[in-house]
Write a structure and sequence with these properties.
The structure is a single chain. The protein has 639 residues and is an alpha/beta fold. The chain is 56% helix and 11% strand. The two termini are 47 Å apart.
């Protein structure tokens, strides 16, 4: 009786071990399953090959029967009669080998089946979990988007479900998506989101946030996906403020058409990006131009800002615009020189889309190679003044070679200018020999996730609106797309304002009592930044004749209709703005606009409001970070 108990116990223990091994992670069982499959196949060929060869003289039939019987082992079939005539299999040891090989075959089959069934169950479980809390959808499955998803998942500690959608997804990324706790949607759901799909994901009107990153390489596909998803969201009656869209596209795409307004349904937040602009913005964030100059106790720059850009392709032009937007300070002269062998050949689009940039700023284009004598002569002549060097030739290997050569030469001649590499993949800075390189990819949460920046931009916009009785959220919802982009640019510049004021983010909340001179200098700097932003966006100064004509048209509409929709100082269609003038001339412009419209606008005061709002803006960002930290702590405690 005891022997039966021992058999039962050992059998049960072995069964539990098999089940546990089958339920383990696939990465840890792959080699076990592979070994079992090889041994079972080899054993089947030996067992049935020997058995059928002893019974049948026709060699081809023996091979066919052996193959069929061996394959049958993986389906749970066995034929002991085929080997019963052999002496070895009459023994206990032979019978043990016979059934061991059959067990290994069945184990390999069960492992594959359980992996498939388990994957489906896991997919259903993850979809169920995705129906609760905020959710993120990433459209487009490729190396960059999956890496971005991994960073996002690590940053949020699994707090927000991530769903990947792509009908043409490569299976190579399935394991990485599963490892981060994400879900992959293929087939029709991957490219054609429907109201039914949103319902299955638990999307309904309420407080749940829904963020979409459209990251396909083809920007047209991103735009189409965003439009289809928007239709599905409207069918589900999802509120605009619940949604955010960040999508890769071209500048001429109608991003404003996807943004919600009082007249039409749309996304609550829309951010358009392309790789060159993303790389240029990342460059400014990682290696700020304002860190290369010093400021006095009244917020005036003590030094000029001189920069060199090597390369004039899409990335190079985006870098130039970003440096212009972020390199304007009271007391400092901005100067930028571009070296590229094809400068004059490809400058047409640059000068046509941003006609005022070269006229308003000290920007020099030189048609010379990155290794030319002319470039090295320039370095020697400007070694004392040069603050910032960016290499963006396009080829990463060549970028590194040129950067290394320039950095070594600048170090030799005693220049302190840093040499930064910028490409559509990211930015890189290599310090002195032996120092670790600083690398930052463009597809990262810190550059693509716009939630914190938008909340800070919202507060800035609210102060710009000047206490009109609406909340910051309500003013933001009434904001057009371009005004939001402008507010985001102002939020990006906050670290520069703090640097000029000699404050840290922590100190601002306690001490933002500015002297009149400091406030004036920071406000002038803000106006310079605002002008640079508009020039980089293709604006030009509205001439007096156009301004006068718009004033006449404004008065006529008021007389005929009782009101006018014309903004006399801004013409968005032709990208003209009357405020693109020196700080000293703003008072006269304010007076002229007030005489025509009867308003009480003070254009200088708008810049001062942005400066005075910094404590509240920064507090908003700090509060949001604290809320996110608390959410993660509660999540971890629950686990």
């Amino acid at each position: 009786m005891e022997s039966y108990i021992i058999v039962i116990l050992f059998t049960a223990a072995l069964f539990c071990a098999v089940v546990i091994s089958l339920a383990a992670k696939r990465s840890s069982t792959t080699w076990i399953t592979g070994t079992a499959t090889f041994l079972a196949a080899f054993g089947g060929f030996f067992i049935y090959g020997s058995g059928f060869a002893s019974q049948i003289d026709f060699f081809p039939l023996t091979i066919l029967l052996s193959l069929m019987a061996s394959l049958g082992m993986f389906l749970g079939r066995s034929d002991f009669s085929a080997v019963s005539g052999l002496k070895f299999f009459v023994t206990s040891g032979g019978q043990f080998c016979f059934w061991l090989f059959h067990f290994l075959a069945l184990y390999a089959t069960a492992s594959a089946a359980l992996t498939t069934i388990g994957a489906k169950l896991l997919l259903r479980l993850r979809l169920l979990l995705a129906t609760h809390g905020d959710m993120t959808i990433i459209y487009g499955i490729h190396a960059d988007s999956v890496s971005f998803g991994e960073c996002l998942a690590a940053q949020r500690n699994g707090h927000i479900p991530i769903i990947f959608a792509d009908s043409c997804a490569e299976s190579d990324f399935e394991g990485r998506i599963a490892a981060m706790g994400g879900v992959s949607l293929g087939g029709q759901s991957g490219d054609c989101p429907s109201a039914r799909l949103l319902r299955s994901l638990g999307m309904r009107p309420g407080k749940r946030r829904f963020t979409v990153y459209a990251m396909k390489k083809d920007s047209i596909q991103n735009f189409r996906y965003a439009k289809k998803l928007l239709k599905a969201l409207e069918e589900r009656c999802i509120q605009a403020r619940q949604t955010s869209l960040i999508f890769k596209g071209e500048e001429e795409m109608d991003a404003s058409g996807l943004l919600a307004s009082e007249e039409k349904y749309g996304y609550g937040s829309v951010t358009l990006f392309d790789d060159p602009k993303l790389a240029a913005r990342l460059l400014i964030q990682k290696f700020p131009p304002w860190e290369t100059i010093s400021f006095d106790e009244e917020g005036r720059a003590r030094e000029d800002f001189d920069a060199l850009v090597v390369g004039f392709g899409q990335v190079g032009q985006a870098v130039i615009k970003s440096l212009v937007m972020n390199g304007q300070f009271v007391g400092s002269h901005f100067s930028l020189t571009v070296f590229a062998s094809d400068c004059q050949i490809v400058s047409g689009s640059f000068s046509s889309f941003t006609p005022a940039l070269a006229k308003k700023y000290d920007i020099t284009l030189r048609s010379a190679n990155a290794r030319s004598e002319e470039l090295y002569d320039f370095l020697r002549e400007h070694k004392e003044r040069l603050k910032y060097v960016v290499v963006c030739i396009g080829n990463q290997k060549l970028n590194r070679e040129i950067s290394r050569e320039l950095a070594q030469y600048l170090d030799r001649i005693g220049s302190r200018a840093g040499v930064y590499q910028c490409s559509a993949q990211g930015v890189r800075f290599q310090g002195k020999e032996g120092a670790p390189a600083v690398d930052a990819p463009i597809y990262s949460p810190e550059i693509l996730a716009t939630g914190r920046m938008d909340r800070m931009a919202m507060v800035l916009n609210h102060h710009y609106c000047g206490g009109n009785g609406l909340s910051p959220q309500e003013n933001w919802e009434r904001c057009d797309y371009f005004s939001r982009v402008s507010s985001r640019a102002a939020a990006d510049f906050i670290p520069a304002m703090l640097r000029a004021a000699g404050r840290t983010p922590e100190r601002v909340g306690e001490d933002w009592k500015l002297s009149e001179v400091m406030l004036e200098n920071l406000s002038r700097t803000e106006h310079m930044r605002w002008c640079a932003f508009h020039y980089a966006m293709g604006f030009d100064t509205m001439d007096p004749e156009t301004f006068a004509a718009r004033c006449v048209q404004y008065r006529r509409e008021v007389e005929e209709k009782g009101k006018s929709t014309i903004n006399v100082s801004k013409d968005m269609r032709n990208r003209l703005h009357a405020c693109l003038i020196p700080w000293e001339d703003l008072d006269q412009l304010s007076k002229e606009v007030n005489e025509v419209t009867g308003s009480r606008v003070d254009y200088k005061d708008l810049d001062r409001r942005n400066v005075l709002a910094l404590p509240e803006v920064l507090q908003k960002g700090i509060e949001e970070e604290e809320r996110e930290r608390q959410r993660r702590m509660r999540k971890n405690a629950g686990q």
